[in-house]
Amino acid sequence: MTRKPAGRKRAVKARRPVAKAKAAPATTRRKTAKANHAAKKKNSATTFAGAAVGFAKDIRPMYTDTDIAHMRFFCDLSKRDDNQQHAQEILRRLKGEGGRIMPPPPARPWTKQQVALYQSWIDGGFQP
Ligand code: HEM
After folding, report:
1. Which residues are near ligand 1 (CB < 6 Å)?
2. Can you give the pTM of this predicted structure?
3. 66, 93, 111, best to mutate for ligand 1 pocket (most atoms within 8 Å of CB)
4. Which tens digits make up the pLDDT trace of 30-46?
5. Residues contacting 52, CB < 8 A, separation 6+
6. Engineered SS bond to 97: which of 13, 37, 92, 106, CB 3.0-4.6 Å?
Protein backbone atom coordinates (compact mmCIF):
# COMPACT_ATOMS: atom_id res chain seq x y z
CA MET A 1 0.00 0.00 0.00
CA THR A 2 1.33 3.41 -0.93
CA ARG A 3 0.75 6.19 1.44
CA LYS A 4 -0.39 9.44 -0.19
CA PRO A 5 0.02 12.71 1.57
CA ALA A 6 -3.39 13.56 3.06
CA GLY A 7 -3.16 17.19 2.07
CA ARG A 8 -2.97 16.53 -1.69
CA LYS A 9 -6.24 14.59 -1.92
CA ARG A 10 -8.14 17.28 -0.09
CA ALA A 11 -6.76 19.99 -2.33
CA VAL A 12 -7.95 18.21 -5.51
CA LYS A 13 -11.39 17.61 -4.03
CA ALA A 14 -11.75 21.23 -3.12
CA ARG A 15 -10.94 22.50 -6.62
CA ARG A 16 -13.26 20.26 -8.61
CA PRO A 17 -16.70 21.64 -7.74
CA VAL A 18 -15.55 25.16 -8.53
CA ALA A 19 -14.36 24.20 -12.02
CA LYS A 20 -17.58 22.27 -12.75
CA ALA A 21 -19.88 25.01 -11.53
CA LYS A 22 -18.18 27.53 -13.80
CA ALA A 23 -18.17 25.37 -16.94
CA ALA A 24 -21.87 24.49 -17.12
CA PRO A 25 -23.48 27.95 -17.13
CA ALA A 26 -20.94 29.22 -19.65
CA THR A 27 -22.09 26.61 -22.16
CA THR A 28 -25.73 27.36 -21.45
CA ARG A 29 -25.12 31.08 -21.86
CA ARG A 30 -23.48 30.57 -25.22
CA LYS A 31 -26.38 28.44 -26.45
CA THR A 32 -28.98 30.92 -25.25
CA ALA A 33 -27.18 33.87 -26.78
CA LYS A 34 -26.96 32.03 -30.09
CA ALA A 35 -30.67 31.17 -30.03
CA ASN A 36 -31.59 34.73 -29.14
CA HIS A 37 -29.48 36.09 -31.94
CA ALA A 38 -31.07 33.71 -34.44
CA ALA A 39 -34.55 34.70 -33.25
CA LYS A 40 -33.71 38.38 -33.60
CA LYS A 41 -32.27 37.88 -37.08
CA LYS A 42 -35.33 36.03 -38.30
CA ASN A 43 -37.55 38.68 -36.75
CA SER A 44 -39.75 35.78 -35.79
CA ALA A 45 -43.29 36.13 -34.55
CA THR A 46 -42.36 34.68 -31.20
CA THR A 47 -40.75 36.10 -28.10
CA PHE A 48 -37.21 34.98 -27.29
CA ALA A 49 -38.77 32.44 -24.93
CA GLY A 50 -40.52 30.92 -27.96
CA ALA A 51 -44.11 31.88 -27.11
CA ALA A 52 -46.32 33.55 -29.72
CA VAL A 53 -46.61 37.32 -29.26
CA GLY A 54 -50.07 38.18 -27.96
CA PHE A 55 -51.79 41.55 -27.64
CA ALA A 56 -52.98 41.09 -24.05
CA LYS A 57 -49.76 39.80 -22.58
CA ASP A 58 -47.12 41.55 -24.71
CA ILE A 59 -48.48 44.64 -26.45
CA ARG A 60 -51.14 46.13 -24.20
CA PRO A 61 -48.76 46.37 -21.18
CA MET A 62 -46.38 48.58 -23.20
CA TYR A 63 -48.95 51.38 -23.42
CA THR A 64 -49.25 53.82 -20.53
CA ASP A 65 -52.52 55.40 -19.43
CA THR A 66 -51.17 58.68 -20.85
CA ASP A 67 -50.57 57.06 -24.26
CA ILE A 68 -54.10 55.73 -24.35
CA ALA A 69 -55.70 58.96 -23.12
CA HIS A 70 -53.79 61.24 -25.50
CA MET A 71 -54.35 59.07 -28.54
CA ARG A 72 -58.11 58.67 -28.12
CA PHE A 73 -58.65 61.34 -30.78
CA PHE A 74 -57.13 58.87 -33.23
CA CYS A 75 -57.88 55.37 -31.95
CA ASP A 76 -58.04 53.29 -28.79
CA LEU A 77 -54.53 51.97 -28.26
CA SER A 78 -55.77 49.67 -25.50
CA LYS A 79 -57.82 47.69 -28.03
CA ARG A 80 -56.43 44.94 -30.16
CA ASP A 81 -58.74 45.71 -33.11
CA ASP A 82 -57.66 49.35 -33.27
CA ASN A 83 -54.02 48.33 -33.16
CA GLN A 84 -54.59 45.85 -35.94
CA GLN A 85 -56.40 48.41 -38.06
CA HIS A 86 -53.63 51.03 -37.69
CA ALA A 87 -50.69 48.67 -37.13
CA GLN A 88 -48.42 49.91 -39.92
CA GLU A 89 -48.95 53.56 -39.07
CA ILE A 90 -48.44 52.93 -35.36
CA LEU A 91 -45.27 50.99 -36.07
CA ARG A 92 -43.92 53.81 -38.21
CA ARG A 93 -44.62 56.41 -35.54
CA LEU A 94 -43.03 54.25 -32.86
CA LYS A 95 -39.90 54.34 -35.03
CA GLY A 96 -40.22 58.08 -35.56
CA GLU A 97 -41.03 57.73 -39.24
CA GLY A 98 -43.65 59.79 -41.07
CA GLY A 99 -44.10 62.30 -38.25
CA ARG A 100 -43.25 63.02 -34.65
CA ILE A 101 -41.91 60.02 -32.76
CA MET A 102 -44.55 58.39 -30.57
CA PRO A 103 -44.81 58.57 -27.64
CA PRO A 104 -43.39 62.12 -27.88
CA PRO A 105 -41.14 63.70 -25.22
CA PRO A 106 -41.08 63.91 -22.28
CA ALA A 107 -42.05 60.24 -22.62
CA ARG A 108 -39.29 57.87 -23.55
CA PRO A 109 -39.47 56.35 -27.01
CA TRP A 110 -39.94 52.61 -27.13
CA THR A 111 -36.75 50.55 -27.09
CA LYS A 112 -35.64 48.61 -30.16
CA GLN A 113 -36.78 45.44 -28.42
CA GLN A 114 -40.25 46.88 -27.81
CA VAL A 115 -40.61 47.99 -31.42
CA ALA A 116 -39.38 44.55 -32.55
CA LEU A 117 -42.03 42.95 -30.34
CA TYR A 118 -44.72 45.08 -31.98
CA GLN A 119 -43.38 44.05 -35.38
CA SER A 120 -43.45 40.40 -34.31
CA TRP A 121 -47.05 40.79 -33.19
CA ILE A 122 -47.92 42.03 -36.69
CA ASP A 123 -45.92 39.25 -38.35
CA GLY A 124 -47.57 36.67 -36.13
CA GLY A 125 -51.04 37.63 -37.36
CA PHE A 126 -52.22 39.96 -34.55
CA GLN A 127 -52.72 37.27 -31.94
CA PRO A 128 -55.07 38.24 -29.10
C1 HEM B 1 -50.77 56.12 -36.01
C2 HEM B 1 -49.94 56.41 -35.06
C3 HEM B 1 -49.95 57.71 -34.31
C4 HEM B 1 -50.24 58.97 -34.75
C5 HEM B 1 -50.63 59.40 -36.16
C6 HEM B 1 -50.11 59.86 -33.62
C7 HEM B 1 -50.35 61.22 -33.64
C8 HEM B 1 -50.32 62.04 -32.55
C9 HEM B 1 -50.61 63.46 -32.57
C10 HEM B 1 -50.97 64.22 -33.80
C11 HEM B 1 -50.48 63.91 -31.31
C12 HEM B 1 -50.70 65.33 -30.80
C13 HEM B 1 -49.61 66.22 -31.21
C14 HEM B 1 -48.27 65.82 -30.71
O15 HEM B 1 -48.04 65.79 -29.48
O16 HEM B 1 -47.41 65.53 -31.56
C17 HEM B 1 -50.10 62.79 -30.47
C18 HEM B 1 -49.86 62.86 -29.14
C19 HEM B 1 -49.47 61.82 -28.36
N20 HEM B 1 -49.24 60.51 -28.76
FE21 HEM B 1 -49.49 59.81 -30.63
N22 HEM B 1 -49.74 59.12 -32.54
C23 HEM B 1 -49.62 57.81 -32.92
C24 HEM B 1 -49.26 56.74 -32.15
C25 HEM B 1 -48.96 56.83 -30.83
C26 HEM B 1 -48.51 55.72 -30.03
C27 HEM B 1 -48.33 54.31 -30.57
C28 HEM B 1 -48.29 56.19 -28.77
C29 HEM B 1 -47.81 55.47 -27.59
C30 HEM B 1 -47.01 54.42 -27.61
C31 HEM B 1 -48.61 57.60 -28.77
C32 HEM B 1 -48.53 58.43 -27.67
C33 HEM B 1 -48.86 59.78 -27.68
C34 HEM B 1 -48.83 60.64 -26.51
C35 HEM B 1 -48.44 60.24 -25.09
C36 HEM B 1 -49.21 61.92 -26.93
C37 HEM B 1 -49.37 63.16 -26.07
C38 HEM B 1 -48.14 63.99 -26.07
C39 HEM B 1 -48.29 65.22 -25.20
O40 HEM B 1 -49.38 65.83 -25.20
O41 HEM B 1 -47.33 65.56 -24.52
N42 HEM B 1 -49.01 57.94 -30.04
N43 HEM B 1 -50.01 61.67 -31.25
Report:
1. 63, 66-67, 70-71, 74, 77, 86, 89-90, 93-94, 99-100, 102-104, 107
2. 0.73
3. 93
4. 555 555 444 444 445 77
5. 45, 46, 124, 127
6. 92
